[in-house]
Description:
The protein has helices at residues 11-19, 31-40, 47-60, 72-75, 91-99, 128-140, 189-198, 208-216, 220-233, 265-273, 304-318, 345-351; strands at residues 63-70, 78-84, 104-110, 117-123, 144-147, 151-155, 236-243, 252-258, 278-283, 295-301, 329-340. By secondary structure, it is α+β, with helices and mostly antiparallel strands. It has a domain at 8-70 and 149-336: Arc Repressor Mutant, subunit A. The protein has a nine-stranded antiparallel sheet. The chain has a two-stranded antiparallel ribbon with strand order 1-7. A hairpin with a 6-residue loop joins strand 3 (104-110) and strand 4 (117-123). The protein is globular.
Amino acid sequence: MSEDADPSLDRVDRAIVNAFQGGFPVAERPFEPAAAALRERDIDIDADELLARIRAMDEAGTLTRFGALVNAEAIGGAATLVAMHAPEDRYEAVAEQVNAHREVAHNYEREHPHLNMWFVVSVADADRVREVLDAIEAETGQETYNLPKQQEFRVEAKFLVDGPIPEGNVDLSHLGPDVAPTDRDLLTPRERDLVLAVQDGLPLTATPYADVASEIDQPVEWVLATLQRFDAEGKVRRVGVVPNHYALGYTENGMTVWNVPDDLVDEVGPAIASLDFVTHCYERPRHEGVWPYNFFAMTHGRSEAESDERVQQVRERMAEFWDVGEDDWDTLFSTRILKKTGIRLDERADANTEGAPADSAETEVGDD
Length: 368
């Protein structure tokens, strides 16, 4: 057995982790067809055991949750990546000041000679981003560098382990209801209730969707159809198990950044996104004199050697399009998680719901 993951994971657990990081059925009793799909791949398991194993991995921290991975951007509001310098002698104090803002969802210390603090700001109203950054600058005395996403080429954070179903390609999403996507931007009030009910995961029961339906007082048929439609519309990225990648051994988190010629970004983006170990891939703005890079590709590895090899593969693919110089790229490794609370979907969904009061976005303003 490989040392890439928790040694308590046996062959069946590894098959489940690989198989269902997406494509889990949106059906009233989803564990039955999911178990059947595993049996077709020589994994001897029934619905009850599949549920019990997912529950056990969730309780052990191997999974962060089970359920629908909501696309916060499609729900409403805005999120942006921000970089700043925190002086070494004040680093902890600056981190506390930044983290005290409820709009800061994630904050990481990263290896860089100047920009050593990287955080995500999530707000219900995009106009609020500048207000939050102005407040952070006033409090810390440090300039912030806003790096909003300009193009998204890939968000596919799947973490596979050695074992059965190594391609992780079990897709049972077709078992859900037939739905037609809409072009509505706003959520209805009951859609908002559904988003908030599932954002932290589905109940680990034999009938998770029915339990959600009961929680929000809606028919289970409506919950199934709406989640299936959200998947088709991109409001849900996927349904399945969401691993804790650290627990699976993916401890090396490298953010590669590149100064790609502007006229090549549209070609480079899909090419880098096609590398299966690249989990996030975006175009972001440069900041003259401080930050020369306009292209980000996140890689994860289970060792320094594997991480270095993957970064080299990104560079080799880049070199197919342009002459990459030593000053044209860098890799920033995260050295510490300073804050990780998740995106505040409640306020963003509230502000993007039909009939919401005009000042609903302002619920993000104020002290904790």
